[in-house]
Each structure stands twice: as C-alpha cells, then as structure tokens.
Design a protein that fits this description.
4-stranded parallel β-sheet; 6-stranded mixed β-sheet
Amino acid sequence: MLEDRATAVSSPTQWPAAYPQGYAVVDVETTGLARHDRIISAAVYRLDARGEVEDHWYTLVNPERDPGPVWIHGLTSEVLEGAPLFADIAEEFAARLDGRVLVAHNAVFDWQMIAREYARAERRAPVRQRLCTIALSKELGLPLPNHKLESLAAHFGVVQQRAHHALDDARVLAEAFRPSLRAAAAGGVRLPLLECRPLTEWSDAPVPRQSSDGGYGGYRPGSWRPSRKRPACPHPNPGRYEDGKRLKQGMRVAFSGDTSVERELLEDRATECGLHVASSISRLTSLLVTNDPDSGTSKTVKARQFGTPIVDEAAFGQLLRDVGPADE
C-alpha cells in the first residue's frame, strides 16, 4: 500500500459525482520517441475512484528490434530477448486498463505508444479517456519549477528509486497523483480529461538499422528523435479554408492531438492531395485538424488567437475527397 505523505490533502467527504470510477496509472519505456518505436516495458497501478491503490503490474516486452537508448532505460537486447511479445501481454494489459482513465505524465505520449502497439496487434486498447498529470498540476496551480516527474514527486515528498524504470516511475506517479486527485476533489476542480482515440489504420515504417559506430539509426544521447522531412509543396498558399467550401491545393494544414487514423498516414494523404503539411501554427495556416479543440495545446491556442479555422478528423477526411486545384 502506498503511504500518504504529509503534504497530502485529506479525502473530502463529498466526492464530485462527475469524477471517474477508476484510474490506471501507467508508465511505458520505449525504444525511442518516433512512430516506429516500440514498448519495451510497461507498468500499471490500478486506483479506485478515490485514488486508493488496488494492485500493480509490470512486464518486460520484447520489441523485436534494437532497444534504442539503453543509457536511459537500461534494458539491453540480452535482457529483452526472452521477454514476451506485446501481442502476448496485450490481453492482460487491456484487462488492467479496461473501464479506467489512463493516467500518465505527458499522457499523450504513453497513449500514442500504447495505441500503436495495439494497432500492430490488430486490437484496440479499452481506453476512452486519459488524464495528464502535467495538465492536472497546472489546474491545481502547484508551485513547480518545471514539469518533470521528479519535480512533481519532490513536491509531494515522494522518493524516486529507479528513474526510467517503468514500475518505479508508475509507483512515483501514483503516489503523486493520489494527493493531486484529493486536492482537485476538495477544490471542485474539473479534471483535465481528454478523449483517447484508438488507431483504426496502421502502416509500419522501416526500422533503423545499426550504424557503423554501433548506434542505431542516429540514437545518441541528447539527439535520438528521428525527424521526418517532406518535399516542398509545389503550390502557392491560397489562404484560409472557408467553411462549406473545398480545400485547395497549396493550403497549409496542421494537425494536433490524437487521430483514429495514424497521424503520418493522414499527413501522407494530405500531401498527395497537394496540401502543405505544416508542423506549427502561424497566421498563414489555412486549417487546423484536431479532435480535441478545447485541449489547450499550443496549436489550438494559437489557432484561436489567429482565427485559424478548425475541423475534426472526420470532417477533414471528407474534405480530402474533393480538393480543388491550385489557383492559377
């Protein structure tokens, strides 16, 4: 049982009726940060509606490729060789997520890695909502120097024993989340819940191969996130998208948040239709595609500031069916 800390807030008598009925505090370690990277270990602490710990679970996962930045997670190929494949643990993992809100630190990353693994296994994770502890700490106005897990842990007096070990990171996060949840309930704070959309389409990218210096695909300390370059759009930007009209070739389109179709497949389709896929929002952006327009991400905030039109993934899919030619 996890111990309450001196800084913890006592559980309020009147618990908000709208709060979830259970939580799965999750941490995954991975071979890297890109779409082709794999989960190599996973841990789940299950909490009830008021944040009491029910049980915990941990597993290694054989990624069927090199382990990536061993200097970070410490899991070598030799350690992972006899571990189960993700498909082998998918059912048990799902049972621990089922019916609960997924809680993680920078939750969009953990969710996307999990969703991709289930898509590869031709299954869907039974997760409908996620809660990011970074977003919750902002809602609570916690006086943190930064948004690292170690800073959140220190605020609540939680001692981290093995950083970047999935089980210990999940334990630390659970200990920090419990008093955060009670504080939110006592103050009537609306939890920053976001929808989790399972992937409905998946296409594997080539796996990085070992380089001559012994590294894998550019995995080096401080510089191991692969970038993806696209050819320049050959069409001029015709301006912003107007509701009820067609998209035009050359329009600048940006994406934010989860999508049910793998993000890079959507980007590829947009590029094939003659659109300019942008990585950020500016006054020149024609359209933002997001399923969470109220998420408060930097892209959605800037889109509202600039008056950039916003549509969801389904509407964008329809628009891609009839993209108009570039202005002459």
